Amino acid sequence: MNFKQPKFKSALHVMPGVEGGHDGLPSNRSVTVGNTIPETQRKGMTTQDYLEGIFCGDRTRLARAITLIESNSPSHFAQSQEVLKSVLPRAGGAIRIGITGVPGAGKSTFIEAFGTYLTSRGNKVAVMAVDPSSTVTGGSILGDKTRMERLATDPMAFIRPSPSGGTLGGVARKTREALLIFEAAGYDVVLVETVGVGQSETTVRSMVDFFLLVLVPGAGDELQGIKKGVVELADAILINKADGSNIIPAQAAKAEYERALHYLQPATDGWQTIAMTASALTGDGIPKVWEEIESFINSTKLSGAFQSRRQMQERAWLRAIVEGYLIEQFYANDQIQQLLPLLDSAVMNGEIPATTAAQKLLDTFDADRTTK
User: Fold this and answer.
1) Is the pLDDT of residue 141 over 80?
2) Which of 151, 171, 181, 275 is deepest in the core (most CB within 10 A)?
3) ∠ at Cα 163 (148, 289), nearest 5°?
């Protein structure tokens, strides 16, 4: 028997992409789908367009401004610097809070509960959620907004997921710059959620006022966390998930940390690092966290430690920019690009030690720059 094959449209239908480049930034080419006329490219924004959007609270232009700042394209660098220079006088007024903790500690759930509590009090809250980038593909899931559904739809909040891009210290490469954009847009509390990879969350300490370490009860010997590392950087330790059957273990963990913290040097002069319990699920302890942060801010402003830390943050930012620029210039150098593969091979084959190869590269770089 012969059956006529039904005529179906192919399921492999490709939908037209959005106009312009990534996140609405201008593209260098038009997109043609089939035989249709190319779509008109999304209009590029001037510096004044970005600034007006930031200052008036236009969420779309705010998002595009942060995309501009985070862009690695050399064509965006000059305009991003113009935007940053213009927003600087309006920045600096927010309370900057860094939040870190091992994966599974419930950082995103806590941030949603904490952020929702703050917006209910009239605060404008910006969340900078940094996701680790894959060392294989370079991509990131950027799924934090899916774990903060209530906060993501709150008109008083703005969540910005960003890939770490291989940057160490638990933050993204342009976290400092994006933080300034949020402050200029009127957000008075900025939460920086780090990638949470353990005891390497150091860079975020150099860009926030208050550093909160989120832990969970019953994860083993509580005192194992009291080591040289992230605990010494924290202004407070929060034992999260203190609800149900976890309440007693959480109280026990808090007591252990309180005793141990007396033997550690405080992260901030004039402030004794504290341990607290809270439940992002029930909301218990969330107001207490904010009370302690407010107490910290008031205390450090009176002692001068707050202003001193802000000044150290600016210095750290300056040096980070210089270091990043030098690294980019080093690997972009023509002489280095020719010599590096040869020295890589020699080091891997055991022909020369890495220290010798590194010195040769540095000497070549210095010599090439001297002759120019």
Assistant:
1) no
2) 171
3) 40
**Per-residue pLDDT tens digits for 101-121:** 877 888 889 999 999 999 999
Model pLDDT, residue 345: 96
Tens of pLDDT, residues 306-347: 999 999 989 988 888 898 889 989 999 999 999 999 999 999
> Which neighbouring-strand residues pair with 157?
125
What's the pTM? 0.78
Choices 3.40.50.1240, 3.40.50.300, 3.40.50.720, 3.40.605.10: CATH for 91-303: 3.40.50.300
Distances (CA, A) of 318 to 173, 177, 206, 315, 321: 13, 12, 12, 5, 5
User: CA nearest 329: which of 369, 367, 360?
Assistant: 369
The predicted pLDDT at position 133 comes to 42
Q: What is the pLDDT of residue 12?
A: 41
CATH architecture of the region 44-90: Up-down Bundle (1.20)
d(CA 330, CA 71): 20
Mean pLDDT of 210-239: 75
Give the whole-angstrom CA distance, residue 140 versus residue 129: 12
What does the pLDDT look like over 234-249, one tens digit per residue?
999 999 999 999 999 9
Fold of 315-371: Helix Hairpins (1.10.287)
Q: Is the pLDDT of residue 89 over 90?
A: yes
Amino acid at 203: T
